[in-house]
Amino acid sequence: MTAKCWDKLARNRAERLARAQTLVRGRLVAANDIVALFEALIEPGDRVCIEGNNQKQADFLARSLVKTDPAKLRDLHLVQSVLALPEHIDLIERGQVSRIDFSFSGPQAARLARLVEAKKITIGAIHTYLELFGRYFVDLTPRVALIAAHSADREGNLYTGPNTEDTPAIVEATAFKGGIVIAQVNEIVDKLPRVDIPADWVNYVVEAPTPNHIEPLFTRDPAQITEIQVLMGMIAIKGLYAEYGIKRLNHGIGFDTAAIELLLPTYAAELGLKGKICTHWALNPHPTLIPAIEAGFVESVHCFGSEVGMERYTAARPDIFFIGADGSMRSNRAFSQAAGHYACDLFIGSTLQIDLQANSSTATLDRIAGFGGAPNMGADARGRRHASPAWLRAGREGRGEIAMPRGQKLVVQIVETFREHMQPTFVERLDAWELATTASMELPPVMIYGEDLTHIITEEGIANLLLCRSPAEREQAIRGVAGYTPVGMARDTAMVENLRDRGIIRRAEDLGIRKCEATRDLLAARSIKELVLASEGLYDPPGQFRNW
Amino acid sequence: MTRPDNSVIGRLNNMEKFTLSLQSQPQQRHCITLCGVVSSGNLEVLVEKTQHPDSCEFEISTSALGFRDIWQAVLKDFAARHAAGGLKFSINDAGATPAVVSLRLDQAVEICSREVT
């Protein structure tokens, strides 16, 4: 009987590292040897993660992977959060990648849709971030992880700094399951500010010819916030945040939520809500949160990632942000996603379409954009076991008088009834259904399921879906805030008025909101420059946001 | 998420003009007000007094063609929501969404009644 081998992964890793021996000096690799290194290390069929978070990108490693020989590096299975770089899609077009599992494709959504339609690629699944990280530790562990760090020392320790993002989750899964970790860094230094990833989890380090790309994805210029968004922000603050006493929350990305952030030091303060709402956040360092922080509204913010230009500001506010002994922020997407799911009472975000069951989706027919993290935040955390006043009240409203008390997370969509080009946000049927058919998906790509959604805010007011007692009531509550879209015009007027009498639909006037006050003057900052001033010059916006 | 662009509803060079008269409760306090600016991609509303206390009149000049039924629905709800009888609203629309139209009209009436009190 032959002895069973229990360390095939480690043996295989040792063989691969041996093949690379002539190309490396300790853990260091020269930039012009990186293509040869990939060809020596990576085997056909490997699961590969090219670190692409929604901000930081291992762009040099991605560019180099595209230069490898397609005869040697083929049938790769990409397992990564984001397919954001053209090179990610180039690899598919070159026939080197046969399968992808991912979360978000952002700018490459249209190209990806065409390749799926042409059957050039198989999508395993489109995940949320937490799901994909979860699968890294179950059945989608990367064999090779190509990651990005700010700097390395000569032993191979890494400093990821404010943009730590997904790196710890990727490296931990890969390094501890026989995989290989290759890091691109902006510079190699004698001493790091702090160690974010220890050297013995890292196999190789290469100094990239150019610093890694970071996208300022969470910057919203206050100059572009409309008065309708101001009005919806007032409705959110007075009709929802104040009503439930929302202290722990997460905001989705967009101008609607940016407006709320900029109304905290003005409108919410006038309502006497300072210290009563919005004190603790799972949120990227949004520049539009600066005035609320400076006004003393905010006690704590944990970040998924950083934001370009916010490094000095976050470092100078260590009581608010999570700051290392070296003085710079550390983010962590996996932890912040878990915090957003379990530790927050409210998620509020925008979407492109909402149907009459309150399902919402950002999918459109010609784009496979994915989810990112919104579904993890925008879902009731059914495993939650700690109470808070907001959570308990939502539970009472939604579940009625049941024997076993239980709370519910507030999950809110804030949308205008019409999007650009008079496209109605409210629809009878989501485009996601058709996309699921054309792209052979097992599930229509729904961002937030109707059963998780508790409120819809539009310029027409708030619909409280928790209080609806039948699917028919729910449908009319949605139609009742759908304004002059076809879905809204088809409302049952008597039923909608009944819902309004019962407080299930509340319009601005029902909340005592004066529309005359809904002007841009109510925003705590009306331009990027005013954000810089509010930050005492600590916020350093990227060039594309500077117009002075 | 991209921001809804209020300035475009299929803007064309030519304008559509129409008038509408709807029943409304008489408004007691009258003044003239100008609310909103067309140059910001929004719309302009001018409110004037008329001789007919039981109806409110609208004169609409819009760059968005083919949305007359939505205009009528927006204005019908507005006339029912407010005591706007005896007032005439001249609206200059540069392709605003119904949301903007309603907000501007509500603001015009609010300012109108506030200034006199």
Strand residues, percent of chain A: 15-25%
Give the % helix of chain B.
25-40%
Largest sheet of chain B: 5 strands, mixed
Query: Can you tell me the CATH class of the largest domain in chain A?
Result: Alpha Beta
Oligomer: heterodimer
Distance between the termini of chain A: 78 Å
The two chains with the largest interface, and their residue counts, are: A-B, 32 and 26 residues
List keywords for this structure.
heterodimer; A: 548 residues; alpha/beta; Glutaconate Coenzyme A-transferase; 2 domains; ten-stranded mixed β-sheet; eight-stranded mixed β-sheet; 19 helices; 20 strands; B: 117 residues; alpha+beta; Ribosomal Protein S5, domain 2; five-stranded mixed β-sheet; 34% strand; disordered N terminus
Provide a quick synopsis of the model.
With 548 residues, chain A is of the alpha/beta class.
Describe this protein's structure.
The complex is a heterodimer of chains A (548) and B (117). In chain A, 31% of the residues lie in helices and 16% in strands. Chain A is α/β, with parallel strands linked by helices. Chain A folds into 2 domains: 184 residues, Glutaconate Coenzyme A-transferase, CATH 3.40.1080; 309 residues, Glutaconate Coenzyme A-transferase (3-Layer(aba) Sandwich), CATH 3.40.1080.10. In chain A, helix 8 crosses helix 9. Chain B contains 2 helices and 5 strands; from the N terminus they run ββββαβα. In chain B, 28% of the residues lie in helices and 34% in strands. Chain B is an alpha+beta fold and 117 residues long. Chain B has a single domain, classed as Ribosomal Protein S5, domain 2 (2-Layer Sandwich). In chain B, helix 1 packs parallel to helix 2.
